[in-house]
Automatic annotation (TrEMBL):
Residue ranges annotated for the DUF6593 domain, each copy included: 11-186
Listed name of the protein: DUF6593 domain-containing protein
Pfam families, per the entry: DUF6593 (PF20236)
Domain of life: Eukaryota
InterPro entries: DUF6593
Amino acid sequence: MNLYLTSKWESPYDGVYFTEERLPVYRVVFTAGSGKRSSSLKIDRATSDPHQNLPKYDTVAEFEFHRWDKDLLNINGTTYQAHEFFSKQTPQPAGTTNSDTAIKLGSDRIFRGTDGQEYKWTLGKKCSQLYLNSGGKQLIAAFHPRKHGLLGIRARTPPYLEITPLGMEMMDLVFCTFIYVEKIRSEREQDDSMDWDRPGII
């Protein structure tokens, strides 16, 4: 299943995700913090109502991002500190031995799915991908940035999140964890000078 993003700023963590038929599935609202106030994210899922022209939404997750404390994740009514929900695995770049360098390049995030298995989000330079954490390359989900058309050779495509059939049984969890890790990955991409050792970053 592909979920296509419509966003004013083309931000994966602030916009609405639609099906190919233009039916809304998820709405993500980002609220920036100021001063000591934390930033936050709210993820809503559209619910069908034949008597409503506009979609109705139910909240499935809320995240709080703290500068000097652990991030908080509320998913389906249960609240976790980020380090309780995710464990971190730092990939070692080829030809390097400095773990601090590896951390700044990005760390994988591992969580346990509703089926009891472990899954791993890899934070790439341009996008995030989710795999079954079994040592193989069993793709569960992947974000695809916008592709611009090329003189009739390549069609223009909007940004979208691809969820493979293996991820559909826990679609909400896949989507919510994607939004969290993409927020972290996007911040790293935009600001290499940011303090990635802050307590909130796991």
